[in-house]
Amino acid sequence: MDNIIIFLMKILSFLTGLLGGGTSLPGEIALKLRPNILPKVADGYRIVLVTGTNGKTTTCSQIVAAIKATGSPVINNSSGANMKPGIVSCLIKNYRFKKSDEMKFAVLEVDEAYLKHVTEDIKPEIIAVTNIFRDQLDRYGEVDKTLKLIADGCAKTPESTFVLNGDESLLFGFMEGSKRYYYGFRVTPDINTESEMNAEGKFCRDCKKPYEYNFVTFNHLGDYSCPRCGKKRPQLALGVNKTPVLTADSSKVSFDGLEIEIPLPGTYNIYNALCAATTAGALGVCQDDIKAGIESCGSKFGRQETVNIDGREVRIILVKNPAGCNEAINSVLPDEDAVNLAFLLNDNYADGTDVSWIYDAHFERFTKMNYQNVLVGGTRCYDMAIRLKYAGLDTNRFHVSEDYDGILYSIRTNITGRVYLFTTYTAMTSFRKYLHKKKYIKKLWK
Of the residues 138, 288, 354, 405, which is catalytic? Predict the structure, then answer.
């Protein structure tokens, strides 16, 4: 019976792929017909799960690239369908009825709230946790709830190896007794020694004293210690040991002597690469293949993805919370050329229905850039326009559109040069579908 369900869902997966439909539908149907199908379709893989607030998709793609550099087969839910149905869909799509002894990997991005529903069925070799920030307050609430969701999922598989962000103070003491590898910065890309005023993890979870920092990389991440109880950042298995060279397009870094040029900008993408390198190393991937994989791995599915629209370079940057948005803003600030700024703000379930987070993001920093036009769209386009007005951007340069036709018209007729498009999740996916129909994007899911 299981094989019949898998066969039918493989056909459905093929058809939905042709039609550009949802990537989770085969998994949703399979789980309704056979709720315990996940262990069967996951059998035979060395499984890596990646969870956390920001960086899951990029980190997964870098791990995948490192494994591919070894010549080993690997699958990944690269479209970002990271709830249980999406993971089952990915595994069904790649399922082979004829078993083999070939070593193969599955690197799977998992939503924080769904981690426990995945680990109750499968036991991954590695779970990597990127960071914990305020995100989708209507769904997750504050960071304590997010941390508990991740902890509950990890607690179901203590025999797994855990790759953890050592600069993330909220992960101190996480999964004690299990095998853990920490990654982080040994030197700072900035001179800042204070966390941001509204940072999430700036207080010691035991004694409530504010942490002291040798340096802060961004938000509350950094080399922390508690002056009262002595809690401090754990020893790092892999770290940035030279001050990175940052541009608007890439970063040159040294991971304990391994020189890598990451083809993505921003400190947050250095953290993603650190997580990927640590995870790949724990899997037994050699340094040369880690370097080759990360250096070959560019933008993915709305994460610094570049689209050419009639000669205009449009860089799509996914944002969904203050911490990630601020780092995305910082990543483009080094661009000294004349640029254009665009924003798509939606408030659907997958974005978070509470858009108040835009008032915690530092859009004021854009006033330092040589921007020519400001395009604003999405279901909450007017809220976004008001926020940008308060940030000090010149309203005479605003082009506010309630539909994508207006956004595309503005790009094609009113501007020249690069466009930095900051967009929430459902706005990104729907705008990509729109551009796909207009023949500006060849492959809808990648």
Answer: 354
The rounded distance, in Å, linking the Cα atoms of 431 and 302 is 10
Which sign, positive or negative, has the C-alpha torsion 186, 187, 190, 192?
A: positive
DSSP per-residue letters across 148-200: HHHHHHHHT-TTSEEEEETT-GGGTTTTTTSEEEEEEESS-SS---S--TT-S
Interatomic CA distance for residues 442 and 308, integer angstroms: 11
Give the rounded distance of the alpha carbon of 358 from its chain centre.
18
CA–CA distance, 112 with 395 (Å, rounded to integer): 38
Is 3.40.50.2300 the CATH number for 37-296?
Answer: no
Provide CATH 3.90.190.20 ranges for the chain: 303-437
In order along its 446 residues, the chain shows pLDDT tens digits of 788 999 999 999 888 877 766 678 999 999 999 999 999 999 999 999 999 999 999 999 999 999 999 999 999 998 778 999 999 999 999 999 888 878 899 999 999 999 999 999 999 999 999 999 887 666 666 788 999 999 999 999 999 999 999 999 999 999 999 999 999 999 987 777 676 656 677 788 888 888 999 999 988 899 999 999 989 999 999 999 999 998 888 899 999 999 999 999 889 999 999 999 999 999 999 999 999 999 998 776 657 788 999 989 999 999 988 888 998 999 899 898 999 999 999 999 888 888 999 999 999 999 999 999 999 999 999 999 999 999 999 999 999 999 999 999 999 987 888 999 999 989 998 999 999 899 888 776 55
Q: Is 354 a catalytic residue?
A: yes
Measure the CA–CA gap between 361 and 364, rounded to whole angstroms: 8
Neighbours of 130 (CB within 10 A): 24
**Nearest to 347, CA basis, from 134, 138, 132, 56:** 138
Q: Are 417 and 312 in contact (CB under 8 A)?
A: yes
Kindly report, as residue ranges, where domains of CATH 3.40.1190.10 are found in the chain. 37-296
Helix (H, G, I), strand (E, B) or coil at 235: coil
CATH superfamily of 303-437: Mur ligase, C-terminal domain (3.90.190.20)
